[in-house]
Amino acid sequence: MNAKNRGFTLIELMIVVAIIGILASLAISAYQTYTVRAQISEGISMASGAKVPIADAYTTNGTAPVDRPAAGMSPDPADTRGNYVSAIDISNGRVDITYGVNAHPDIAGDTLSLTPYESASGTISWRCGGAPAPAGNLITGGDDHLAPTVETRYLPAICRQ
Fold first, then answer.
1. Which residues of 28-49 are buried (b: 16+ CB within 10 A; e: fewer)?
2. What CATH number does domain 10-159 carry, 1.20.1440.80, 3.30.700.10, 3.40.50.720, 3.30.43.10?
């Protein structure tokens, strides 16, 4: 028998293109979420530079620094900035991270706060974003933690509720 070689029909090709399109849209969405999370992580990493003088000031003086100069940093929050972070400020021992114009539009202008707590053993732990307060006392005296303006889906696991 003479078998005739046939190509794909137009419908079969359209189905393949549609499947590839769906997979590509899912991959793009996942990649965007990944890049925003990486930008959030930059802010948390940069904030670690402000956490050290806060902990030192608290262990030395028994009080949290009220602002950047009290923590031994320059007075301008914009002096601490990165590719995606426009400023890191200190307010009554709390570290406030503000994301700048180079950040993804979903987080540009948003803030994320890290608040220090002292445990019963005297160690300092940090509350990040919408996470519950750790065991211990807030070292600033009151409840000065700010809820994040960053969407929860972009926050790392340690900063979620």
1. eeeeeeeebeebbebbbebbee
2. 3.30.700.10
Residue at token pair 């950047």: 68
Q: Output phi, psi for 115, to 5 deg.
A: -120, 130
Question: Do 86 and 101 touch, CB atoms closer than 8 A?
Answer: yes
3-state helix, strand, coil in the chain (%, to 5): 40, 15, 45
Identify the three-state secondary structure at position 87: strand
Q: What is the pLDDT of residue 58?
A: 87
The model's pTM is 0.82
